[in-house]
Amino acid sequence: MAVEPVCRQTTLLLHGYLDGELDAARAAEFEQHLVQCHDCANQYAAQRSLRTALRGSNLYAKAPPALARRIRSDIREATEKPSLLASITSWRWLAAAASMALVLFAFWRFVPAFRGASAEQALATEVVDSHVRSMLPGHLTDVASTDQHTVKPWFDGKLDFAPPVRDFSGAGYPLIGGRLDVLNGRTVAALVYERRKHFINLYVWPSQGSDSAERSISRQGFNLVYWSRNGMSFWAVSDVAREDLEEFAQMLEH
Amino acid sequence: MPNSEERARFEQVVLPHLHAAHNLARWLVRRQQDAEDVVQEAFLRAYRFFSGFHGGDARAWLLQIVRNTSYTWLQQNRPQESAAEFDEEMHSDTQTPVNPETLAIESANRERLNRALEELPPNFREVLVLRELEGCSYKEIAEITGIPIGTVMSSLSRARRRLAQALGSEPKQEAAHGS
After folding, report:
1. Are A15 and B157 in contact (CB under 8 A)?
2. What are A222-232's pLDDT values in tens digits?
3. How confident is the model at residue B105 (pLDDT cuts 50, 70, 90)?
4. Which chain A positions have a beta carbon within 8 Å of B155's beta carbon?
């Protein structure tokens, strides 16, 4: 292979451009250069393929669960023990909390309407928890693909139902992957969409009840939209604006 | 000693970055068991210093501690490795262009990529791991590694070129052994 000369002044900028760290003016300048300079265009292609390989080769080393347990126990040991007075007070609070729980249980047991609402509340909490967990590094997707024909077959044999998998790139909600998750004690499909650098988790599972119209709530700063249709329950959760999430739900329903 | 309130805050703010900590340590010390020891020690240190963390980027703050713990560990246990800084003079062919097609084929092999990355000098390995695997910005890389922010770009440029060279040169060596 013949050694070709490379523009010295722009090799460095190539990396800043690749990493999205150039300001708008310098990025535009570099793009213009890329069109004119064959060597730099080649280098840029090479660096991009290197990046794709690095990111797509499963090189990220996640921590094993046992390590998390050891660290938690280390932390517990390195924590100041509460004083005797504090522990007495906390026992009293515990007693108060226990009697409160008893009252709430009685209420929940004998007022069926309240029970339905509280089941939905509990589910909303679970959905938000699951969404937050999925934001931990490496947790978002088990199958990362923007292609619905890759994501859909991935679920085959992993679930006892076939979740509808659609991509909405055209409308600004590209599909970026999927994973399995557990909600309310059952395995569900989680589809991940992106909206202007924010993520939307869409949970899908077969529902027992009849179809229901979409409803929006917010929890801990997250917006949730949920509905049932054709025997499937859908829960979408994200930190995007409520209007965006509702628009997203609308697209899914049509 | 932190109290139970601080512990709750630590578990909420710092503990979620456990995977990031483990990934960095694993790439710096390169062996699973050693990485776990380093991460465990780093978390304990972080917990003791937690009162000194006044908000901001918790991941960068933690990774800075993980990095220091890793290098200290390397110095104590494998001193020859931590001293292996890359010698610019001996590798002055830094302007050699990289052929995109060969690279695409060579790097498709995960094992080869893994080995090439592991064999880079640690100062190059860490910027690549932080940028490509951890997705850190230049500012975060500067904060974690202590490299001035103005030189993060050139560090990455050198590291990437070295990695590309390592990936590109291997098949030739294998061919030579084979003949």
Report:
1. yes
2. 999 999 988 89
3. low
4. none
For residue A199, list its beta bridge partners. A194
Q: Taking the model in full, what pTM does it have?
A: 0.56
For B8, residues 6+ apart whose C-beta sits below 8 A from its C-beta are none
ipTM over 0.95: no
Task: Tokens for A203, please give them.
Answer: 């949970």
**Best residue of A9, A22, A50 to probe chain B, by most B CBs closer than 10 Å:** A50
In total, how many domains does chain A have?
2
Distance from the Cα of A197 to chain B's closest Cα (Å) equals 13
Whether B36 sits inside 8 A of A64 (CB atoms) is yes
Contact with chain B for residue A103, Cβ under 8 A: no
Closest residue to B157, CB basis, from A15, A51, A53: A15
The verdict on a CB contact (< 8 Å) between A75 and B157 is no
Report the share of chain A in percent with pLDDT over 90. 33
Helix (H) / strand (E) element for A214: namely: strand A212-219
Distance CA A122, CA A56 (A): 37
Reported as a single tens digit per residue, the pLDDT across A48-68 is 988 988 988 889 999 999 999
Q: If you write DSSP's letter for every residue of A136-184 in order, what string do you get?
A: STT-S-SEE-S-HHHHHHHTTTTSSS------BGGGTB-EEEEEEEEET
In the three-class reduction of DSSP (H, G, I as helix; E, B as strand; rest coil), residue B26 is classed as: helix
Q: Which domain holds residue A245?
A: 112-253
Q: Which residue of B has its CA nearest to A81?
A: B3
Q: For chain B, how long is the longest CA-to-CA vector? A: 67
Tell me the chain A residues in contact with residue B31 when contact means C-beta distances shorter than 8 Å. none
> Where do you find CATH 1.10.10.10 in chain B?
89-178
Q: Which CATH number fits domain B4-82: 3.30.457.10, 3.60.15.10, 1.20.190.20, 1.10.1740.10?
A: 1.10.1740.10
What confidence score (pLDDT) does residue A100 get? Answer: 84
Residue of A10, A76, A79 best to disrupt the B interface, most CBs of B under 10 A = A79
